[in-house]
Amino acid sequence: MDLYLPIAEMPMNVFLLLGMGAAVGFLSGMFGVGGGFLLTPLLIFSGISPAVAVASVSSQIVANSASGVLAYLRKKTVDLKLGLYLTLSGIIGSSIGVWVYGALRGAGQLDVVIALCYVAFLGTIGMLMTVEAVRAILAKQRGTPLPVRRPGQHSWIAGLPLRVRFQRSRLYISALPVVALGAAIGFLGALLGIGGGFIMVPALIYLLKVPTTIVIGTTLVQTLGTMAFTTFMQSATNQTVDVILGLALMVGGVVGAQFGARVGQSLRGETLRLLLGLLVLSVGLRFAVDLVARPDELYSISRMGGG
């Protein structure tokens, strides 16, 4: 049963779309990440243009984040002030990202830039996560756990100016790294179609020392605000958001996330980090292979805009 995607301008099997959404939702529920960095490449590998894949996945991330924010607000584990700082700076980063996205698309270089960014970005993150997880597993087997930095040790961040008090997180730190982090995640979200939770969560914990119980809910607030703005801007500016595609992915993702969460609860933390690191690294390697592999067709004819 094929479903025509009006913005992508191609038919796709509805069960394939639901399956992709469910698969990424399962992984998202198991690893506790948004899944945009997995879903966007999966759509690209399935034949959907990178421009449409990046913009359409943003709508799916918004739906998932909205559900999560409500749950964490009920638990009162959200630092709204910190989330507001991250969201506002994220919107600034998203605005720049949408502009760069449009400029690259107009120049015909968007596909190549997205592929190169995924190779460098996912390859680096995946390698670091894998190495850290392997070290943790080996240390645990030897009975010598890795040293953990005490809360409140902010190293060089403690000397930065423009300090702000975040009472819910019990922090008194400079607003500069908070704004820089939010803007960077917003930029990457608009350009690559990722929520950025798998970067934001460890950054808040290890860099800014935000309490672990507050991190996920606060990150979801930033993701919701930033990606909602990104989806609107992509639709209004570049007309690349395929609502039909986004809805199909949402339905599959909601179902898959429930099963993934159950599996994730039965695995150790270091094992989850190792599996996620290997998964991220494999996606980056796949992009690298596609960049250097010989294409099926050496020449193609396409209609250029304005011609």
State the strand order across the main sheet: 1-2
Shape: globular
Average pLDDT taken over every residue: 78
Give unreliable regions as ranges: 150-154, 298-307
> What percentage of residues falls in helices of 4 or more residues?
over 70%
What fraction of the residues are assigned to beta strands by DSSP? 5-15%
Order of helices and strands: EEHHHHHEEHHHHH
Class by alpha and beta content: mainly alpha
The number of distinct helices, counting runs of at least 4 residues, comes to: 10
Count of structural domains: 1
Biggest sheet character: 2 strands, antiparallel
Gap from first CA to last CA: 35 Å
Gyration radius (Cα, Å) is 20 Å
Number of strands: 4
Write a concise synopsis of the structure shown:
With 307 residues, the chain is mostly helical.
List the helices and strands and how they pair.
Layout: E1 2-5, E2 10-13, H1 14-31, H2 36-45, H3 50-74, H4 80-106, H5 110-142, E3 163-166, E4 171-174, H6 175-192, H7 197-207, H8 212-238, H9 243-264, H10 269-292
Antiparallel strand pairs: 1-2, 3-4
Helix pairs in contact: 1-9, 2-3, 3-8, 3-9, 4-6, 4-8, 5-10, 6-8, 7-8
Keywords: Cell membrane, Membrane, Transmembrane, Transmembrane helix
Protein name: Probable membrane transporter protein
Pfam families: TauE
Kindly describe this structure:
By secondary structure, the chain is mainly alpha-helical. It has one domain (2-292). It has ten helices and four strands. It has helices at 14-31, 36-45, 50-74, 80-106, 110-142, 175-192, 197-207, 212-238, 243-264, 269-292; strands at residues 2-5, 10-13, 163-166, 171-174. Strands 1-2 form a two-stranded antiparallel ribbon. A hairpin with a 4-residue loop joins strand 3 and strand 4. Helix 1 packs across helix 9 (243-264) and helix 2 (36-45) runs antiparallel to helix 3. The chain is globular, with a radius of gyration of 20 Å. The protein starts with a strand and ends in a 15-residue tail after the last helix. The relative contact order is 0.22. Mean pLDDT is 78; it is low at 150-154 and 298-307. It is found in: Cell membrane; Membrane. It is a multi-pass membrane protein.
